[in-house]
Structures are given as C-alpha cells and as structure tokens.
TrEMBL record:
Domain named Response regulatory: residues: 1-119
InterPro entries, A to Z: AAA+_ATPase, AAA_lid_NorR, CheY-like_superfamily, Homeodomain-like_sf, HTH_Fis, P-loop_NTPase, Sig_transdc_resp-reg_receiver, Sigma_54_int
Chain segments annotated as transmembrane: none
Keyword tags: ATP-binding, Nucleotide-binding, Phosphoprotein, Transcription, Transcription regulation
UniProt lineage: Bacteria, Pseudomonadati, Bacteroidota, Cytophagia, Cytophagales
Protein name: Sigma-54-dependent Fis family transcriptional regulator
UniProt source species: Dyadobacter luticola
Modified residues (4-aspartylphosphate): D50
Length: 457
C-alpha cells in the first residue's frame, strides 16, 4: 500500500487515480493526525509526502511530519513532492532520510518510475557475494576479480541494475568505473537500448548545451544543420556521465533541470522535448567535499546518487592483480599473435607487491609494454622491471622541487609541457603517460594555452 499525504484533496485524488491505474493499492491522508492514525494500524510500502503541506508554502509543516514519520518508522521509504523553487527544502528532506524528491508539476511516467524504483530497491535482500553465483545470475564477463570488496560491489550492481535508480560510481582514476557503468546497463531492462557515454571533463562550458541537448540550424555561427544531443541519443536507454565533478556551476544547473523534469530544449529551439533515460555518473573527485566548498550543487548531488558504488584502488585488492595480468595477456595473445605467452609464477607474486597508483589502467599498460618488448614467451620479473619505469615522464618526478618553491599549478604545467615535448605533441600518448584521460588533458592544454595536434575522439 502507498500512502499519499497532502492536505489538498485534488492532489490526493489525482495521485491516487494515477497509482491505482498502475496496479498499486493507495490510501490518502489530509493531516498529520490522519497520517499517524493510518501508521498505527498498518505499515505502508512507501509514502508520498507533499512538503507544501498546509496553506503556507514554507514547507515547515511537511518537514516536521517527515521527521515524525522517520522517528516512528525509519524503514518506510518516503518520496517528497515539492515545487522547483523549494528544491533546497527537498535537499533538507533528503538529509532527514527521504529517499527521493519530485518537483511539481510532475510527469506521471517519471513519478511512477520513481515509485517503482524505490519499491524495487526496498524489496531486494542482499545475498552473500559469490563469484560463481554472480556469473550465473548476471553478466559480468569483462570485470575480472575475486576480491571480497569487488564481489560486494558486483552484488550491489546486480541488484540495482534492474531498477531505474540513478547510480554514482566513485573511485580513483583507472579503477574501472566505465566497466561498472556498462555492467549496470547490460544487466538492466534497457540493455537493448542505447548506452551513451559522455566525458564531461572534455566538454567546455560553451559547448555543454549543444553536446548534451543538441542544437537547431542557425543556433550559432557554425550550426549548419540540426544536431541531436547525447540525451536524445540515449532515449529509452542509459546515459553515462563520466567526470561529473568537472562540471562548472552553470552547467550543473542545466543538467539538474533535465534530470529533474526529464525535458530539455535544443539550443536555439523553443520546443521542449521529453526524454526517458537511466542516469549513471562517475567521478574520481570527492563530491561531498565539493558540496561543502560550494563548487558542486547539493541538489544535483542528491539527484544523482540514490545509489553510490565506490570502487577500491587496485592496491586494496592485490590478489586480483595476477588475475587481471593474465586476462590482459590472454587478450594480447590474439592481438599480437603470440599464442604461447605465459606469466612466470614468480612474476605473479611480484606483481602483487606493486603500488600501481594508476590502478588497472597502469597495470594494463605495463603488461602490454612488457609483451611488446619481451622476446620470451614466458614473462618473468626482469621483463616487467625493465618496463616499470620505462616512462621518462614518470621517472623525471624523482627530482621533485622542494616544498614551497613551486605551486601545484606550475608543476602541472611543467609536467604537461615536458610530456608534450617527449611525445612530440601526440595527445593520446601524453594523456596515457600522465595517467589521465585525453579529454581531461585537452582541458588542461586549453587552460595553460599549450598548442597541440587535434585528434579524432
């Protein structure tokens, strides 16, 4: 049973008709007293609570009622309904234990989707993580590892994939956030629909609207024809917003609007378009810290992280390093036509001791360099050692300046300049050597005014 709490009979009736048409059992309450009379006799599966609960629009009465509900039974999921102008109040409600918030005027399809998502998440019971069982139940072919931390993550990924819950994937660079996003999509009901990847770190604020929402012919000087944006490409599927922590505040507002209202207007158009997408975001930055510092919107943060998946660094699961190494070697056997490639047992143990600050990406590069430069089909410790510090840019960091003699920005400029010179301005090679994405490098090159050769995405 779903309990609708609102003093406005018209809203209660409208929501009740909508939810009943979707097969839900519904009850309504017009006052806090009515609400608790129902709660004393039955436990609803979910509560829809309008924050503008009384004649006044401050939302205070609705917020107080939320606190009372959570104190009475914190296990009952609550979805808040609020106006766009009072989203700050909804964010306060999320801190008090609400599970989601919807703005007025709501879209019926989105409201029902949110209700189903919350109910599905509440109904699922976590099971003990076991790789064999996970493989039988889900599709995780491209994710390698047996570590308990990873298996717990895959268990969570499997459970939430069947819902439309927005997921935020966090973790250091190179930990495999994109693979997890792909796994969420491939195990979802949307798997036959598009999976659109967007690297927000590679999109400037001036191009943000055009890239994500598209544009019509004549919207700006170079707009020779209409262009479909990434959100429209992902309609009925999933959109993966990587490096979301790189967005400036103005772009964050525009993104929040489309996530909240599920509508957007292409640049240069006055016609709104509706979009149905599952949103998966990723970042290697600390968004909670950014929220505290005012560089990331709190309402956007709560909108994207109904479920948070934090990936461990590779050094935190060392037993998976040999498994990953052999996975890469087996792929390279085919690519380089060397069917007899194997990993020496001593090398397996030695690889587990490496710090690998660049995580899986660094390990993959190390294995591939070693395969390319080794004449032997049996890779041993010496083969890897030759290539571990083969990157002159990384080796040059041994001679770091004294603390206080140079700023971090100046050091970043020097490192990028040195890498560009060594790799003859080849952006892909420079990005790989610095352990960042090509799009993140483009942003830094523009920031420092460093010339470069453009490469196709």
């Amino acid at each position: 049973m779903i309990l609708i709490v609102d003093d406005d009979l018209a809203i209660r009736t409208s929501l009740a008709l909508l939810l009943k048409s979707e097969g839900f059992t519904v009850k309504g309450a017009g006052t806090p007293e009515d609400t608790f009379e129902i709660l004393k006799n039955t436990t609803p599966e979910l509560i829809l609570l309008d924050l503008n609960f009384s004649i006044e629009t401050s939302g205070e009465e609705g917020m107080q009622l939320l606190k009372r509900i959570k104190k009475f039974n914190p296990a009952i999921p609550v979805i808040l309904i609020t106006g766009w102008g009072t989203i700050d109040l909804a964010v306060m409600g999320m801190k008090e234990g609400a599970n989601d918030f919807i703005t007025k005027p709501w879209q019926n399809s989105y409201l029902v989707q949110s209700v189903r998502t919350i109910l599905n998440l509440a109904a699922q019971t976590p099971q003990s993580a076991n790789r064999r069982r996970l493989e039988q139940q889900y599709h995780f072919e491209n994710i390698v590892g047996q570590d308990a931390k990873l298996l717990d993550i895959l268990e969570t990924v499997g459970r939430v994939s069947s819902t439309d819950a927005p997921v935020l994937i966090t973790g250091e660079s190179g930990t495999g956030k994109e693979l997890i996003a792909e796994a969420i999509h491939s195990n979802s009901k949307r798997k036959s629909r598009p999976f659109v990847k967007v690297n927000l770190g590679g999109i400037s604020s001036t191009l943000f609207e055009s890239e994500l929402f598209g544009h019509v012919r004549g919207a700006f000087t170079d707009a020779k024809s209409d262009r479909i944006g990434r959100f429209e490409m992902a309609h009925k599927g999933s959109i993966f917003l990587d490096e979301i922590g790189e967005l400036d505040l103005a772009s964050q507002v525009k993104l929040l609007r489309v996530l909240q209202e599920r509508t957007f207007e292409p640049l240069g158009s006055s016609k709104s378009r509706t979009v149905d997408v599952r949103v998966i975001c990723a970042t290697n930055r600390n968004l909670e810290e950014m929220v505290a510092n005012g560089t990331f919107r709190e309402d956007l943060y709560y909108r994207i992280n109904l479920i948070t998946v934090k990936l461990p660094a590779l050094r935190e699961r060392p037993d998976d390093i040999p498994l990953l190494s052999e996975f890469f070697i087996n792929n390279l056997k085919i690519i380089y036509q060397r069917p007899h490639l194997t990993l020496n047992p001593a090398a397996r143990k030695w690889l587990k001791t490496l710090p690998l600050q660049g995580n899986i990406r660094q390990l993959k590069n190390l294995v591939e360099r070693t395969v390319l430069l080794s004449s032997s089909d049996t890779l041993d410790i010496a083969d890897f050692q030759k290539n571990l510090n083969a990157n002159p840019v990384a080796a040059s960091t041994k001679n770091l300046p004294e603390v206080g003699t140079i700023t971090l920005e100046e050091m970043e400029f020097q490192m990028i300049t040195r890498a560009m010179q060594f790799h003859q301005n080849k952006v892909s090679k420079v990005a790989r050597s610095l352990g960042i994405t090509r799009f993140a490098l483009y942003r830094r090159l523009e920031k420092f005014g460093i010339s470069y050769e453009s490469e196709d995405a």
